[in-house]
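Below is how a single chain appears once it has passed through the pipeline. First comes the sequence as given, then the structure the pipeline wrote out for it. We keep one example in the README because the format questions we get most often are answered faster by looking than by reading.
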Amino acid sequence: MNTEHSRRAFLASGGVAAIGAAGLVGSAGAGEVGAFSRRGPGGPVVISSGNGIRAVERAYQMVINGADTALAVVSGVGIVEADPGDMSVGYGGLPNEDGVVQLDASVMHGPTHKAGSVGALEDTLHAAQVALKVLQTTDHVMIVGDGARRFARAHGFPAKDMLSDQARKVWLKWKMNNSSRDDWLDESERDWNPEGTQVAMGKGSESAAFTYGTIHCGAVDGGGDVSACTTTSGLSYKIPGRVGDSPIIGAGMYVDNEVGSAGATGRGESVIQSCGAFAVVRAMESGMEPSEACVHVLRGIAKKSRLQKRLTGNDGRPKFNVIMYALRKDGVHGSAAMFPGAKYAVADGQGSRKVACASVFE
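Resulting structure:
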């Protein structure tokens, strides 16, 4: 199939597969679960994960006032990065197993197809702003660890202790009870023996009650230019140096200015191994509606999770959640989660609000 011809025909006509073929759970409600539309209203439109209602409001105002979409999404997520009440992003985010907050973030600018990201960034409040500086001032895409910290200082970002008192208390409580609640696999959970030989799949085990969190934000302006950003403090109590999907272009965030943007929150390892955001954008390019594309990718993630028994229950369903978000360049948006009940935030000409995500499983 000629992909370019298919994409152009899709954007011109909005032709999609039947909703029933997508197998989406839930009704259309206010007409926005999946936002199924044969042609979008155009921008400006800003979407984010459910914890980003203030982020989309700020970003939308910036876009309608003429700001570049990349600057708008970074400014929007900055509200959540600075909020100690959100324990999955920025200041107040839960730390790694050593009690150190390490941040991941990425930004991608559709008009130039340029990206910037940071991983395992310490002692810095606004990881998304540092990622934007990588995009704006370097020929690199990703800077990590101490290099990211020194890069932030060079650009004037002040040092800040990112572990809030509340997060410190939660971490100390985990430290006292973490014998079976960490990211180190017991022998019975491993797929490989100490000699490096693959063995039979380990027995299933109950997942620890970790925080995944994250905020994703995507925006399209009135001219159809798209940018997106994902920022997080990552999996709580992670092994130091662990980097999730959020700073990886094509995993936790991706933009193609001819199609749209996508992002993810939830279990980062599964999103990385499925190239989640890239796959959603390519599915939209092939003709799927945004939520349909999200469901399509989540089904693939769920299927692959069965290859690691510890990740699935006896019913074959994942023990974890992933939520995918998608924004098409014509303003149509959508999202889907593994399980029902999730919502995402939207700001457009109708105002700001939360919209129900579609889901893979009932």
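The CA atoms of residues 218 and 308 lie 32 Å apart.

See the next section for the split statistics.
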